[in-house]
Amino acid sequence: MRLLKRLSSGDFELVSFNDENPPPYAILSHTWTEGQEVTYKELVAGTGKDKIGYDKIRFCGVRAAADSLEYFWVDTCCIDKSTSHELSTAINSMFRWYQRASKCYVYLSDVVVPEEVGDAEAFRVTWTEAFQRSRWFTRGWTLQELLAPPCVEFFSKNGKRLGSRISLEQEIHQITKIATEALRGRSLAKFSVEERMSWAATRTTTLKEDTVYCLLGIYGVFLPLIYGEGEIYATLRLREEIGRRQEGQGIERLHDLSVLPVLPFPRNELFVGRGDQLRSLEQSLLPSNTHQRMTIYGLGGCGKSALALEFAYRALVQHARQMVFWVPAISQESFELAYHEIGVRLGVPGITEDNADIRKLVKDALSSGSLGDWLMIVDNADDSGVLLGTTDNNPMSARLSDCLPHSNRGTILFTTRSRKVAGELTPNSVLELNDMSKAEARQLLARRLTKQGLLDDEIAVDELLEKLTYLPLAIVQAAAFISNNDISVSGYISLFRHTGTETELFSERFEDPSRYREIDSTIAKTWHISFDQIRRQDQLAAEYLSFMACIDRIDIPQSLLPPRGSLVQQVKALGTLVGYAFITERQQTVQELDKERFFDMHRLVHMASAWWLDGHDERATWAGRAVARLEELVPHGGYEGKATWTTYLSHAIYVAGLSDTVDETARASLLDRVGRCQASIDADEHE
């Protein structure tokens, strides 16, 4: 195929590439103006610059450069239509070319946004009516240009971005009557022949035969072009070829099909940051001829699934023939349902039979190496019992992890909240995902707020992001509340200052199309799931977590924790909490390695742990244990063991401040001890 490259002089040149391995490129979708489009011969000759069509080429080149794409494709001048063989090849390849494009820019020549409108997406009223009437939605060829690319963006005639296929989904659905699932990237093969025909029923083309030829990619078929045969005969040939494809189309003919994504969510076009992590994933997993596996792990809400989803879509864009599968490991049932859907889409023989061994059939099919390259995302592998356990407690029984395919043509990426699970799944290939950087967090908030003017209060924005610890899910949840309730950033922060509102704010539900509907998309619920898992897996870790929720979250000495279990159990319990990123250990120098270990607890986890205890009516009990433990360790002043007991004072002060949980007598006792200890410290300093 030929691609355009923008030169420093402002002109363009055509560069030829192997059709099977082109570089990343953008692609233009537009409607033609008779006699005003720049042809292949004109571009080669350097003429045609006075045509209206040349402005579209300029536009596409500028947009591609803005998206860091060196090459782009425009149908009018990248195909030599004077050669019938080349034209036939191009039409049969068109769907695939759009499918492989990193970006598809839709240039709407009959939609103009007033120049004084800076943000067209925020002022839809200025162009919505023209958008709905646009000629682009009436043309036959633009149907595949709408559905094939992974990312479609719409622009006005004067180059203003109107939105994307995702952000304009409802408007496009109303105009075209195309199912929203198709707009979200669901395999077109899942829709009936007649339904796909209905999408094109009212569309027109200049040549009658093109009303049929423009559907070749929609059905994944190829036909020789016979201009002059008429629409009826062309339709008959199309239906005959579709029928042949449907007869016995099993796994052995899968290579004839287009990309096979099984992704549960549309691409998140509000995704920001994580550039280093994406590069690491791409370098480790994509360009390989050997089977690769890797695990992303991190605190609940840090964006593991969002990162995996973005990586999956990038794999589709950069490796267009690669099949991508998404397998939720939330439960054994969710895993097996995903495997069944994969088997059906692959056309695996026997997959729909009663009592079919779905796990083995899918594993064998993907392990065979005959299907080409594939990527499998195993998401939410948080509970080790799902993938690594057996249903009948028989250690010899097959585990779900044993049913994962292994092929030099395939790659598996896991996501989990647990470092322990990550280590068991891929011991030597783990990517830890921490909170966002300040710059990334600010960018995410900007993308999620509907009113960009709210960002002008930079002091309030910085304070909010700090309160949210730069955690992606917390930022998205806060932005949703701010936008839905039309309040300022400082107004949202002020809500935190009222007793009890933090719990309510972090329990606020919000819609997020990139998260599972069956999982509550709130900070509180996200971590409560982890708390429940910890209680099942490690009772001592759960006790430590409950205890820490009632003391200060900073500088927690290990010696302050309840003296339970063996030394090995204590180390494992702390390892569990560190593995879930609930706590972090303070770094020690080499000289301090044999001394006391100190830990800090994530600020939001500290709050959520307290909410969890409140919800289970256990906070008073654990606060009482914290009081009792501190009374054991904090003396009534003096100098003996001062180096040790000084590390407990901040925690005693914190517990004494829990006026709604700890009774007055216990609080007074703790404060008396703190006061006597402080007096001893002061006296020692003045000697």
From TrEMBL:
Q: Which domain of life is it from?
A: Eukaryota
Q: Which residues form the NB-ARC domain?
A: 277-447
**What is the protein name for this chain?**
HET-domain-containing protein
Cite the GO molecular-function annotations of the record: ADP binding
Q: Any idea where the Heterokaryon incompatibility domain is?
A: 25-110
Source species of the chain:
Clathrospora elynae
Against InterPro entries, the record matches this protein to: HET (IPR010730), NB-ARC (IPR002182), P-loop_NTPase (IPR027417)
* Gene3D superfamilies assigned: P-loop containing nucleotide triphosphate hydrolases
Q: What is the lineage of its organism?
A: Eukaryota, Fungi, Dikarya, Ascomycota, Pezizomycotina
- Segments passing through the bilayer: none
